[in-house]
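assembly run, all chains below
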Amino acid sequence: MNLTDKHQRFYQVAIYICGFLLFMEWLRPLEIIADFNNVSVFFIYAAFCFFISFLQVNWVISVPLKLLGLIFIIDGLYMGERIFGSNWFTVIYDQIMYNIQVIQGQQWWQMTPMFRSLLFLILLWLMSYLLFYWFIVAKRMLIFILLTIIYVTVVDTFTIYDGKWAIIRTFTLSMISLGLSHFYKEMEKEEISFKQMSSSYIWFFPLIGMIILSTLIGYSSPKLTPQWPDPVPYLTSANPGAGSGKGGEGPVQKVGYGENDSRLGGGFIQDDTPVFQALANDEQYWRIESKDTYTGKGWEDTLDGETSALSADDLEFETFTNEVETEERTSFLNFTGEANFNKLVYPYGARSLDQFPNNTSLELHTNTGEIDTIRDGSMTQVEEYIVEYERPSFEYNELREAGGEDPENIREQYTQLPDNLPSRVENLASQIVEEDDNRYDKAKAVEAYFAANDFEYSTEDVEVPEDHEDYVDQFLFDTKLGYCDNFSTSMVVLLRSQDIPARWVKGFTGGEPTDESQSVQGEDLNVYEVTSGNAHSWVEVYFPEIGWVPFEPTQGFSNNTDFYLEVESDDDSDTTTDDESDDNSASDENDPSNPNQNAEEEETEGEDDTNAAGASNNNNQLPQWIAAGILVGLGVILYFSRFRLMAAYLERKLKKNQDRDTFERAYIFLLKVLENRDLKRDSNQTLRDYANKVDARYQTNDMRQLTTYYERLLYRNESDQKQMNKVTELWENLIKKTLS
Amino acid sequence: MSNQTFLYHPKISEVLRNINKVMIGKDEEALLSVVALLAKGHVLLEDVPGVGKTMLVRTLAKSLDCDFKRIQFTPDLLPSDVTGVSIYNPKTLEFEFRPGPILGNIVLADEINRTSPKTQSSLLEGMEETNITVDGEAVPLQRPFFVMATQNPIEYEGTYPLPEAQLDRFLLKLKMGYPTDKQEMEMLARTSGSHPIHEVEAVITRDELIELQHQVEEVYVDSTVHRYIVDLVTGTRKHEGVYLGVSPRGSIALMKAAKAYAFIKDRDYVLPDDVKFLAANVLSHRIILTSETKFEGTTAEDIVSDILSDIVVPVQRNVSE
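ok done. output:
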């Protein structure tokens, strides 16, 4: 390898590494915004492919190498069988056939993870080839760089991915690769041999210096705060197909029950897909789990806590003590195919399960009340079961007078708050409860606080807290707009700041009552339809000697728990039960009289919301402007690159079919480009005079030569096929000069 | 000259070199004269006396191996002095035709505006036809037949300006103009010894000239260029400063001249450049200006260049068709 090659190699390697790192910026967000678990594997494979592409070995070597890498990754990630064993091929074959069928049926969502990974790996493979072409062969990386920047900004705007550093990295890498390639191209154009550039690295330092300087200036200079409201809620509401998750994995999901609550916020859209049918006496909460650790952004659970096996005949799990009045009840739950949370859904006071499949075992997470349903060692969804339970009824006075100390472990676990919780949250809590002397009244005061202070229920335009913001703080003081997660989390945090043990509970509301009724074990039960949209979160507050009592802070929802007041003067000890909804109505003016119409309430809320959205149309127009701005921006980019695009197209065409029409088009296009480059041909100017002018500007003879050919074509009406190669060459020279 | 860079037809470049030996700084006039010669047209040289009009014609004629005749027009010249006359020969007892100067190949009609219209027309008619009629008999003109007429500008005393209709018969009108100081000094230096015209030798024979004229006719003119010519000519008819625009004969003249010019440039097709280059010389003497325009001091050449800057040069087929 001589000196020339070495220098040239250095530039190619440097540019190519920049290209690879830029491409990595595309992969980075995937871990956060999509359900990618092993991103590092893909990183490694991409690096591998890029490396092989760069070596420029014969495809006979490179293709099998890349294929082998691909197979090893697929094997390592998904395959239990011994690699290249007979079973191995069978599994691969089955997978591929299945997925091809799925694709033919256009049921994209049913593709298996393995197949999706396979496709993605192939994409990486292709990209490694493409980027090699762009960066090394064609030395045209601007489009890719622009796309990368757009990608990063879009991902930053529309997902929880924080693109702050990504954009800085992208900028730096872009500038380096553009600078290098420009230098490289310049050397080629001027035909300077790399050999003459013995100290060619010196110029590198000002480039790096300038890039560092501009990056630092850009980083440290003051920036405007966001000038528009977050466009995400608007866009998601405009497109019902793309919802944001309530309790889902990040904000890009539809409403429904999900496990990951580590980042709450963002709007979502209603989804009326039935999840299960519940046969019950009346509407009640369907509990799944509680969470104990508030992070400032959402909830984490401490699943690594103890687990214990449960028997279906005796669910040894209680949220309240024996002191509480109960009533024996039976419910029948029948899950649809949509249900896939693999957990037991149970009412308060669940005692035992009937008609529960024998081969399924139950595992209770004692901390959270989460009961996994496990069959053959893996989580499974039970289709139907009957649950016998004792519906609790809490007595007001007992709650008010509940005394005694909280157990140490409960106080420790359920009064946890993040260290950086803004102090104004605690101040607000003190303010809310200052007139109340017992835990129940305090809890009720907090529960009532939201309705009394114009907090709005909405599933749209709900903000996701920024890095420095606290989810609860944002809701309580800034947005005052949200759905159950906002209300319930806020209530828990407010209570905890007053040292009242409270936890955040997830499950479903009672669902929509249907007109039907069915008999189960001799009881006539109402049929409730529970949909994804009934996924809900609420609050449990701990009362010593009583246990955890549910509270419902969310606007427009009523507490399905029974509360009653024991009237002392009564002759007998009979109790009057009193539905809590009435209790709640004081704080909720919108609450309809029928307490069992949760779904309807939600709908009403939804409509109110639409109206509200209509009234605040001005806010909603801004995202439209942003969208329009993006479109205009794209249009501008296209407009400014139109000559290059057209030039590339014509160049290809001219090389392919050298006919006079193409030449005429190419020549006229050249005139247009020249006109755009401030070399306008006056309409009374002949081509020859114009060619002289052009050649004078570019100090060539090419335009005159090309014009002679064109004149011959136009004014002699004949074209010389033999000369077309020369014509193409002249045209290319000129186009390059004018576009550079 | 703007298009000096392009090669000339080899024969023509010899002629032009000859003229260049005698005339200083008159390349364009020489070139235009050859254009007219090859296009089978005639030239009207208009300028004050003493700027080399006659010298140009003489040099040109000497470069061609052709019969050169000269008519000095005076107020008392008669038509028969131009065409020739039949004289009774007592020996043969017959009228014998004595050909006039018009029956040469190259005819210099000096100071054509100093003679009476009657005599003028005897020449001008001959320019348009291939025959002249003498004593009721048609006498064929020589081939090639090329008239270069000179005239003093019409504002000078004692002249009979050519009627506009007659002017139409000249393919080109040239103005000689004064030489620059430098050119004039060089001219003095050259003429101090023997006159350079004596060194000029014929480079083209008569037959060669006829052949060249024939080849000029073969030069291709695309409809794109036809369009341009028609646009220009129509432009003169629409121009507000023009009383009477260029006739269709003018269009043909422009095309013929352009063909000859393209041929001289060693090209077998006409470019708009050729048309543009010749337009002023071909068109300006075919335009009659309104009196207002004349009083404003605008010349026909100004009008033509005005039109040239207005008319779009066709550079695309779909635009022109």
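Chain B has two domains: 1-217, 219-321.

The interface with chain A takes residues 2-3, 220, 222, 224-225, 268-273, 276, 308-313, 315-317 of chain B (CB under 8 Å).

not gonna interpret more than that til we talk
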